[in-house]
Amino acid sequence: MTLPAPTYDLVLLLDPQAEEATRAKILADARSAIEAQGEFLRQDDWGDRSLTYPIDRKADAEYHLLQFHAGAPEMLSALDRTLRITDGIMRFRIIKLKPGVPDAPDVLAAPSEEPQGEPEVVVEAVAVAEPGAEGEVEVVAAEVQVADVDSEVGEPA
Predict the structure, then answer these.
(1) Distance (Å, whole) CA 25 – CA 18
(2) Residue 107 falls within a domain, yes or no?
(3) Residue at 89 is within a domain
């Protein structure tokens, strides 16, 4: 039994000051290189986003995510080399996903109305300390109150 081809994420940070035609050509070339030796799965355009730190004195970049199955390891090295020498790409990263990793979220979608995961909890702690022998501090009493974010601190959860 053969294992399925591993899934890869390619995240591209394109220079927003580059011409639109140049950015479109970079994406088309990356997609065609993937389709030539692998299976292209999806492309998400995440739009312009601020960078954590400036790259080449630029504060923002145009983000794109491409997911694919690699047919051969040589395809990854060829894609890596092509992306390294292409002008207009500020940064890129090819990541091999582990089996069972969920699909990438739609970053440009509106946030859902319902909170997901665990509710946020606020903890308030009060401790009373008294000086003990030889300058040590001994905790005499402690009280901890836990409340949901929606309720007031001090009310039972």
Answers:
(1) 11
(2) no
(3) yes
User: Looking at residue 74, what DSSP letter applies?
Assistant: H
What's the rounded Cα separation, in Å, for the pair 122 and 155?
11
Angstrom CA distances, 101 to 10, 72, 96, 104, stand at 15, 21, 10, 9
Helix, strand, coil shares of the chain, percent, nearest 5, are 20, 45, 35
For 131-146, the pLDDT digits (tens) are 555 555 555 555 555 5
Nearest 5°: the CA angle 74, 77, 80 is 150
Q: Whole-structure pTM over 0.85, yes or no?
A: no
Instruction: Determine the Cα–Cα distance for residues 134 and 79; give it in Å rounded to an integer.
Output: 68
Helix (H, G, I), strand (E, B) or coil at 28: helix
**How many domains are contained in the chain?**
2
User: How much is the pLDDT for 131?
Assistant: 54
Query: 146 and 140 in contact (C-beta within 8 Å)?
Result: no
